[in-house]
Siderophore-interacting protein
Amino acid sequence: MSYATSGSLYAEVVATQRLSPHLVRIVLGGEQMPGYEPLGVADEAVVLWFPRPGQDRPAPTTLQDGVWGHHDPEVAPPGRNYTIRAFEPGENARMTIDFVVHPGGVAGEWAVNACVGDVILITRPRCWYEPPADAVWILAAADLTGLPALARIIEECPADGPRVYAMVETADVADLAALPETQGNAAGVDASVGTGNGVAPGALVELIAAKLPELISQGPGYVWYSGEAAQSREIRKLMRKTHGWPLDRVQTVGYWRQDAEVWNETFAQVGGDQLVQVYYQAIEKGLSSAEASEILDEEYEKAGL
């Protein structure tokens, strides 16, 4: 079945590179890769599905009730969301993914051990980065998990576009080598080393709060963040409640949770599945995904999540 129909394709590892102590770059290709249809947005992300033990490739998606997916939990492969660092179209199409590696991570451990010829499955992309047309500045912040998207925001910054200010927190100064030289109308990168990323409390909320007065004085702007989920919530609250910004000027994406095990236990204890229904109810009432997500986040916070 083609990518256009099923929204998935198999990809083969064609190259690997250790970028830093915490980052591994995997370049993917193969005969199906030319069929990939990129969104062309800096934080474009896909779901990568990995083989289960004993498999040479993950199970394919199947069609059920008009939906393509892995519907049988007994055979469903483990999957994780990853930003596309780069995509080169054409007959010899290539997709580059940068992986954060850490003990116990399904995707990171796969990346560390990946060999040329290994096969994974890729499904349809999504994206969130959408600065308003009148933005004169952009504040883009991320931890290691958001670093590939932040790198693309810097790399693709046009000379005649909004001024881009980048903030990043990494576990090791060597991780900063994964960022490109500033281009176009991008300013330098403010880096916090040794914070967040599972090694220490995150620092980006405070750094953003300190930078905002200077930026807001320049005119209308846009704030984008990707990284740890609790920090994502705090940054959104800072912009939405403290500064009263509308949703179209704030985009925060939680890629992972610092306290995932505790959070999952609490989720089960408070009946989290029922809380999730407020999201779908909001969508049914005509609210946008961003509006519904904010309502759900408020319910989570009330429940101690």
About this structure: The first strand starts at residue 8 and ends at 20. The chain has a mean pLDDT of 91. The chain has eight helices and 14 strands. The two ends are 40 Å apart (CA to CA).
